[in-house]
Each structure stands twice: as structure tokens, then as C-alpha cells.
Amino acid sequence: MVAAATLAERSTQTGLAVDLHAVSHQYDLGKSILPVLDGIDLKVAPGEFVALLGPSGCGKSTLLRLAAGLETPARGEVLADGVTVTKPDPSRVLVFQDPTLFPWRTVRDNVAIGPQARGVLAASGARIDDALKLVKLESFANVFPHQLSGGMAQRAALARALVNDPELLLLDEPLGRLDSLTRLSMQQELLALWQRAGYSVMLVTHDVEEALLLAQRVIVLSERPARVKAEIVADRPYPRHRDDPWIVDKRREILEILGFAE
What pTM was estimated for this model as a whole? Predict the structure, then answer.
């Protein structure tokens, strides 16, 4: 019998292929309709890291929710490996800006929520330990969320996602509330986890530099209702550096596309 691969051994595996075809979405506010997405066409290759940039409220988070299966588009179709997404699935995991850890559960018990919900907790001890090691929290397994720093709490939320062995990791500004030094450290950890695990990533961020440092492709969205305004292929080798002239030039280009002249 072949043993299941650990999370740290997944580098040979690939993530989900995601295809958003002519996706439009809106919200019914009762007395009015709020359009948020307008004819979005976007493909994410298996194992690709894609960042989404755009003005606040333009629909970036909605796009992630559609990819996760938490909502269905008003028009168009979302596909994962060629299959229409109609509901959530453990292979597609959404990580929010707020870690939303249960305060009455230890870090380990928070990470174990997924396996527990699927009824496989007893068989998942090694995988839970592996996820904690990947985010460097194995020494904090038995502490409670209030005892963690902001960066540690976000790493716990990542471990909770990774324990499900996702093929698509959807990140909704996961570093937005961290201090600058912790954010820099977490950027490197996110990059290392993606390179090691091989899943596909869709990252929503407001930080242009962060998008260029981490992603292979940067999608720039317009004001709401969002349309794809530009696509930047970031084919620079890793690790990338903030003072790289290419990064500086592309940052300026993206800010101009978004209407911010430096």
C-alpha cells in the first residue's frame, strides 16, 4: 500500500485549472440592484499564482467567492478542472483577511476543524501536525488564539486551509492587517508554501508591490462593476526584490492604469 503524500511532498502535484467565462454578478439590495462584475474572462493554469488588483469595492472578493463556490454567478460560468463550480469543496479553500479563529479552541484544534467536519479527524493527526510545521507553529499547537500575534494567527488560518490539502488557495487580503515587518515575513512564507505545495493561488491584494513580488500574473480590474482592465505577466525569477527596476517600472505602470500618477 502506498502511503499518502505529506503536505511537504506535494511539490510534484499541480493545482486546479480555473476558468471564469463571461462571469457577471450582482447583488439585490431590495430597492436596487448593485452590479459588481461585468463579463469577466479569466483563466488560471494548474499551479499558477495570480494576483487580483483593483479599487476598493470593485468585486475582487466576490470573484474569489464565486471561485470557491460560496456563490454562483448571475451570468457566465466558473469551471474548476473543466467542471462547473456550484458549491464549496475542500479542494478550493478561501482564506480571509481576518483569521476568524475560534477563541475557545487551541491552535491545533482550530486547524483540525476541516478534518473534524468531514469525519476523518482520527486519521488526520499526522496531517494536522504537518500543516502546523509548514507554518512554523508546531510549538504553539496547544495555545489559544488570544496568545498569538497577528502574524501567528494568520499562519494558523493558513494551516487550517492547508490541512485540507487544497488544489486552489483563494487568499482575500490575508496580510492586510499585519504590521509592515510581519507582512514582509508572511509574503516570503506564502511564496515558499506555494512553491513547495504546487497548488493554484488567487490572491486579492491592494498592495501593487506585493502582487508583483509574489504572482506570476497580475490582473488589474476596473471600478465596479469590475472588468479586466490589464494583465501583467510577471516572468521575473524568484526571489524578487523591491528595488528591481522591472518591479519599480511595473508598479508605476499599474498605478497609472488604476488612475494614480506618481
Answer: 0.87
